[in-house]
Amino acid sequence: MKKSLARLDLNLLLTLQLILQEQSVTKAAKILNVTPSTVSKSLAKLRDWFDDPLFVNTPQGLKPTTLASSMEESLSDWLQIGSQIVSRRGDEAPSGVRFNLGVESPLSLIMVDELTSRIHRTYPDSKIKFHNWDYDSIDAIVRGDVDIGFTGRESHPRSKELLELLPYFINFDVLFTDLPLVYVRDDHPVLKQEWNLETFLSYPHINVVWEKSESWALDEILIEQGRTRNVNLTMASFEQALFVAEKPGHEMFTTAPRYCQRYCQQLHPRLVALPIPVDDDQQEKLKIPFTMIWHKRNNQNPKIKWLRETLKSLYGKPQ
């Protein structure tokens, strides 16, 4: 027999979500500022309502049953939406909302002013946290630690970072397409030479590790031709590579996305950008679709929907 929702104390669902989160009656009670006995009584009511034990005791704490586990994501979404609804008064936007963004750096440094201003205008007193996009960021989106990611993928057909290789439970939307460029110091001897692939490969390169990989689409293109780059230095980020490339006393240069020109104008004005000297077909394989990425469970989440539309309005390009 189907039970009426009107007969269920919705506060019990908050208790259930906290027990799922903490896997402990005592810890849930501490968060709720009530006694463990009160939480135990609430759990008994929940067990009766759902006709399921919901949790079993183990040496590691309470382990959720299959039914309880199946409700965890839905409860989290319901409580988040509920908190936004009850925080509204008249035309006020909800306050105190948290935004966790996983953004490739230095793109995050370029975005931070205009994006945070837009968020704070719509969500007063909101808390914003930028996470550097890295190898574990997809897992962070799955766990709910990151609301939405914004990063470059790859177009080369053999790349492991193709958009079609993202997990089925991840949704995405391409906002703009970029190309990598070569960044060299403005007094570098290469600027006095004919700019072609031979010249490009004759100088030492500063490489960047991206998502735990030291090779990328350009290396695949060169392998097809039986060529390789002369990598003399490998750095952990584009910022580090650009910082070193500008320093005098060496002949190394680096590659980084085109958007980094805006970053360099402010912090590395002596760097000059050149195209990677390959033909049009190979340039096509180097294209970087900059993409926002989120979990499918957040498709209808009001905060994530607003954030997606905001990112699209700020950074999206007409197709």
UniProtKB/TrEMBL annotation:
Q: What are the protein's UniProt keywords?
A: DNA-binding, Transcription, Transcription regulation
Gene3D superfamilies assigned to the protein according to its UniProt record, in alphabetical order: Periplasmic binding protein-like II, Winged helix-like DNA-binding domain superfamily/Winged helix DNA-binding domain
Q: Which residues form the HTH lysR-type domain?
A: 8-65
What InterPro entries does its record include? LysR-type_TF, LysR_HTH_N, LysR_subst-bd, WH-like_DNA-bd_sf, WH_DNA-bd_sf, YidZ_PBP2
Q: Any keyword Transcription regulation?
A: yes
Q: Which CDD domains match?
A: PBP2_Nitroaromatics_like (cd08417)
GO MF, one example:
DNA binding
Q: Please report which protein family the annotation says this sequence is part of.
A: Belongs to the LysR transcriptional regulatory family.
Protein name listed in UniProt: Transcriptional regulator
What organism is listed for this UniProt entry?
Photobacterium sp. (strain ATCC 43367)
